[in-house]
Each structure stands twice: as structure tokens, then as C-alpha cells.
Specification:
15 strands, UDP-N-acetylmuramoyl-L-alanine:D-glutamate ligase, globular, alpha/beta, 26% strand, 307 residues
Length: 307
Amino acid sequence: MQYDVVGVGTVVVDHLVLLAQHPVQDAKTNIISDAYQIGGPVPTAQVLLSRFGKRCAFIGSWGDDQYGLLIEQDLAAENLDLTGSRLMPGTRSGYSQIWIDEQAGTRTIACYRPERCLQPHELDLTLLQQTKAVHLDGWPEETCLHAARFARQAGALVCLDAGSLKPGMEQLIPYLNVMNCPRRFITEYLQTDDIQAAGKALLAQGPEIVTITDGTRGAWLFTEAGCIHCGALPVLSLDTTGAGDVFTGALLYGILEAWPLDRVLKCACVTASLKCERLGNRNALPTLAEIEAVLQTSAPATKTSGH
């Protein structure tokens, strides 16, 4: 195989704005610092995987506005193959503004998606034939569904970082091998707040591995063999932006390394926690050595009795 992971998804420019704390409505506050970074669930996960030594290609699009060149240069600098990606003339790139509350360690995001995304017929299917895994974010729905179907037929592992609820999930999930989602997703999609019930329900729809994250409460990994829980690290959280993206990237890394699932889940939790100690996503990504040091000293993931 030429690639370890081919990603299909949305890429945006994030404008990070660090505040002492969020102002009340219709008020003003000073900015401590700000910076631009390239974000999006799939490209962030792929940058992590690339830094961990995996061969990655990204299939996405951006506009010819002031952000398009920034996106292309950043992803290329991280050694992502962009031959399947496109610049869309006359369109705006995806953009988000992220207000980070330094005191609370939380973030609020306002964003718009790219004006035009790759359509199913524009996918470079040869890339999907030359990879061990395909990583999706579910947007745009028709393109991701087409990619998932083709990848499964080609024998690739298909992973989804669900994030928030998007149209077409019920059609996409049966084609997945691996699915990660935050707790808010199960509330929106399954109308339940019961993590154990949600894990079983999602497994029944097709995936072989389902993970559900819940911030400081840690994460759960479900398979037909049972459920594993991993607590969150007791870290001082500065910025949670991209934590789910990083979690999914580390999850994929462990699966590709054929690690035991308790180690896979622990690795994902540790990676996301370490990221939250730092501002942003690029500069905040931990190294494999940092992750390994924590894996050796922290408590292991444990089986639960609820599944």
C-alpha cells in the first residue's frame, strides 16, 4: 500500500483568540493573543499521524481567497500528499473564529464551511485503492458516503470522526469499521444520554469499534466483546480545540499498529489530554515520546460491566 491513511473531509483556517474570560453579551474585552492555524477534524488527525511516521494523503478543497494558499502550504509542509485535493476558483475557504477562555479552559467556535466542496465524481478513487485506512468527517455527506462505499469494496478500514450530527449519518454508519463521537452526538442522534446503550446501538448499525468521548469523564470503547473505559488525565486544560480530532488520529494510529484495544484507547485519551495543555493544534500536538512516557506511568484502561 502506498498510504497508511487517506483522509476525506473539510479543512478550515482557524483564527484563535485567547481571552482572559468570555465577555458578557454586548460587552467588550481585551485580546491576550491571537494566531491563525489550519484546522478541521481530518487534516488535524492526519498531521498527527504524519508526525508519527504514517504516510498520509488528504482529499479536500479550498478557495482562492487569502486563506487558500495558507491551507495548501501548511498541509504540504506537514508531508500530506495533496494530489487528490483541489483549489476552487472564485470560492471562499472554510474559516472559523475560536474564542478561548483562559480562565475556564473552554472554547467557543463560530465558523462557516467552504463555499464549495468536492463532489463524489471529483474524488480521486485511485488514492482510496492504495491505502490501509480512510478517515472521514461526514461532510459533505454524498462525497463521504461515496468514499466509504468505495473504500470498503477496496478492502480499506473506514473510520469516521462524527463530531456533531450531520445529514446522512444513518446511511454512512453501516459502511464504517471505526466510529468516534462525543457524548453530545449520541444525545442528538440516538436521543439518549446513556453511553452504554448508545455504544450497543451504534455497534448494531455496522461499526466494529465505537468510541464515545466525554471530556473530563474520559472515553469508552465498544466492541462486540465488551466495553473498555479510560479516565481522562488530570491535566490543566488550556485549550480543548481539536481534542476530538487528535483523539481520533491517535485512535487510528493504535489500530494501525495492531495494539491491544485497551492500549489503543489509553493512547487516544493521553494524546488528547496532552494536546489540551497547550494552545492550538499544530504546536499543541504531543510527540510519540511524550505519549509513551505517560502510557508507562498512568493507570490502564479498564473493562466495564455495563456491556
